[in-house]
Sequence to fold (275 residues):
Amino acid sequence: MNAIKLPFIPERTARPRNHGVTMVMDKGLGLKETEHFIDGNEAFVDIVKFGFGTALVTEKLEEKLIMYREAGMTPYFGGTLFEVFYARGMVDQYFKFLDKFKMELMEISDGSIIIPHDEKCELIAKASKNFKVLSEVGSKDSGIIVTPARWIKSMKNELQAGSWKVIAEGRESGNVGVFRPNGTAHTLLINRIIKNVSPDDIMWEAPQKSQQVWFIKLFGANVNLGNIAPNEVIPLECLRLGLRGDTFFDNLPKETAERLKHVNEEGDEIEAEEE
Fold:
């Protein structure tokens, strides 16, 4: 990073981070693509998710895991892969699979299938003895409505059971879970959640720029954001720091922001008159 220090730039947490985490979704990068991704984004990525069940079909998986770890990024396999093993009665085999690849972080989810919540919490408690656990709340099926009370109860219970953070479902498309089908945030739902669960304990899946902007404006630069595309890491960091138009004024002094916005409005009026 450049050494220039600008005033009114929010201070970012440093790796290893507990909040301000950026989780990137790897849906099948090749080794050369992975190398290029790391070269350009190393300082800004905390964890890398091998999306859904891609770990089972990824060529040279061990080599990729080594590359990410050497770059200070923590890799893990998507929660759907856990569900694949669970649906076949092979949870213990899944833990052995994770051990084989020396995984430190794992995800327990039930976005595609139904797992009784008490059983899910028991699985989290069991897994947390050997792994750092992410657990996901919310359904991948847009037709399934999860009430705010259920979101809150699930998040609280799973954190208590041993989850490091709970993931608020949004999918890689950003149109389910805490988002409406058009991608806008379920504002009332999210406000209910954060009154009961600390935002630092939540990883918000936010693949779309508008969603990232919304969460940054609500929680600040150090909000936990996930399902970020590899080519969107630097743009996201610019949003966090106010180095993009969408968050440009958020950290400037109020008087400065109002003055500059007024100048811009006058400029727009002049341009309109000239046209």
